[in-house]
Design goal:
Layout lengths: L3 H27 L8 H26 L12 H8 L2 H4 L7 H28 L3 H35 L9 H10 L3 H6 L14
Helix pairs in contact: 1-2, 1-5, 2-6, 5-6, 6-7
Length: 205
């Protein structure tokens, strides 16, 4: 019979590699002079770097308790394929607009959260309670940062436009935040959910 603890180990290793990859990019952003013009964004990436570092350390410690122990040298092919889409930003040191950097952070954190959703589900299925708890805790700690990013980015976009010489009405910044946040409200997501069993509109034959 297969060892459930041995089976879960590669997935935990993948998760540690994913967050470590994101952490390296976030740390570069925190040291980027361009972020100094955006105190809210600078503060966010600073706090996020601290959280990601804690996650990576905890995942590596947990790996040590699993058969085989230690961090995998590379992530699995499927995860590498997704991270490859971020390589243009996260595998190179380059100057870019802060808004674009934050957009890429949002994308990377979305990858991390759905990966934690999968890890939590896998751990539950394999009856690996400790791993399931770690995955769920880390997921809950990351989701507020995605929300915060979505609230900060509109103001950053407007400020960057003003730096480029455009006449910007900054009083509309809060409206941009309200409008875009409304797209995620329970009222909107429920009203516009796909029709069908379980909220999914599938194609039947």
């Amino acid at each position: 019979m297969k060892d459930n603890r041995e089976e879960i180990r590669p997935y935990v290793a993948d998760m540690a590699a994913v967050e470590k990859h994101i952490l390296e990019a976030i740390e570069r952003q925190h040291n980027d002079d361009g972020f100094k013009d955006f105190p809210n964004a600078l503060g966010l990436v600073g706090r996020l770097a601290g959280l990601l570092k804690t996650h990576v350390e905890n995942l590596e410690t947990h790996l040590g308790s699993l058969p085989g122990g230690g961090v995998a040298a590379t992530v699995k092919e499927t995860v590498t394929g997704v991270l490859g889409g971020l390589a243009g930003v996260y595998d190179k040191v380059r100057k870019d607009k802060v808004s674009r950097a934050l957009r890429d952070d949002y994308t990377a954190l979305s990858l991390a959260t759905i990966s934690y959703t999968m890890l939590h589900s896998t751990a539950l299925g394999l009856r690996q309670g400790t791993t399931a708890e770690i995955a769920l805790r880390n997921l809950k700690e990351l989701t507020p940062y995605i929300m915060e990013l979505s609230q900060i980015i509109p103001q950053v976009v407007l400020k960057e436009l003003s730096f480029e010489g455009y006449d910007i009405d900054f009083s509309l910044g809060p409206q941009a935040v309200r409008d875009t946040q409304e797209a995620w409200s329970p009222e909107n997501t429920t009203a516009n959910a796909p029709v069908g069993s379980g909220g999914y509109s599938g194609v039947t034959r």
